[in-house]
Design a protein that fits this description.
With about 250 residues, the protein is mainly beta. It contains 4 helices and 20 strands. It folds into 2 domains: about 45 residues, SH3 type barrels; about 200 residues, Fumarylacetoacetase-like, C-terminal domain (Fumarylacetoacetate hydrolase, domain 2), CATH 3.90.850.10. Strands 1, 2, 3, 4, 5, 6, 7, 8, 11, 12, 14 and 17 form a 12-stranded mixed sheet that branches. A 5-stranded mixed sheet has the order 9-20-19-15-16, with no helix packed on it. A hairpin with a 5-residue loop joins β3 and β4. The protein is globular and about 55 Å long. The structure holds magnesium ion. The site of magnesium ion has 8 residues, from β6.
């Protein structure tokens, strides 16, 4: 099923998307919820990020081809960093190009959405703790990331975490086509079967370090083809079985 969160009549609501119709739900998608009698059209709502993570745990250099293009050695274990919850952005939201950067990049990624509080989860049990999957763009100020040596500033600006358009709960994450577009130019095209560390392995690895809460996301890394975006560009992350996440680059909003 495809879960969406959206604004409708100035209220935040969630529902199940089927085609271009949304069945509005009562309750919290991560606990008790039931369908209501209300059906609205997708074109009647404004989609929001499908969950509100307390943190986004991101994995760097998790596709062999991307590690090569960055001239980095293949990691022996997952390279983990965080994006703050304040970076969250919506489908069709504006990504602000920071005035202190001259090299803003897109990174198309599969995001794992956690469904249950997770600590010391074994890879074999990871499915029980995963709610579903969504598209993410790990927007990166590449010049700041490289200059700083650690990644919080370059990847942590407000608006640098677009998620959406929905959470798909019935999906095998191991063989998904993943694409990244800037305007009409295909920049990234790969498959999650090129991941160095698999989704279940990542759930075990991350939950060995920190507690994951319902709605938290793990960004699984980006394939090769990352590159610059300019003010005015439209950037799209597309993952088979989930959908397309589109955002627009604007000059820094102050
Ligand atoms: Mg990334």
């Amino acid at each position: 099923m495809k879960y969406v969160r959206f604004l409708w009549k100035n209220e935040v609501a969630c529902g199940i998307l089927s085609g271009d119709r949304i069945n509005i739900l009562q309750g919290d998608i991560f606990s008790e919820h039931t369908p209501t009698d209300h059906i609205v059209g997708l074109n009647e709502v404004k989609l929001l990020a499908p969950c509100k993570p307390s943190k986004a745990v991101c994995i760097g250099l998790n596709y062999r081809d991307h590690a090569e293009e960055m001239k980095s050695e293949l990691p022996k274990e997952p390279l983990m960093f965080l994006k703050p919850s304040s970076a969250l952005n919506d489908p069709d939201g504006e990504v602000c190009y920071p005035s202190i950067s001259n090299n803003l990049h897109h990174e198309a990624e599969l995001a794992v959405v956690i469904g249950k509080t997770s600590r010391h989860v074994k890879a074999a049990q990871a499915d029980e703790y995963i709610f579903g999957y969504t598209c993410a763009n790990d927007v990166t100020a590449r010049d700041i990331q490289k200059g700083d040596g650690q990644w919080t500033r370059g990847k942590g600006f407000d608006t640098f975490l677009p998620l959406g358009p929905c959470i798909e709960t019935e999906l095998d994450p191991h063989t998904l086509e993943i694409k990244g577009w800037v305007n009409d130019e295909l920049r990234q095209s790969s498959n999650t079967n090129n991941l160095i560390f698999s989704v279940p392995y990542l759930v075990e690895f991350v939950s060995k370090v920190m507690t994951l809460y319902p709605g938290d996301v793990i960004l699984t890394g980006t394939p090769s083809g990352v590159g610059p975006m300019q003010v005015g560009d439209k950037v799209t992350v597309e993952i088979a079985g989930i959908g397309s996440l589109q955002n627009h680059i604007v000059a820094e909003c102050e």
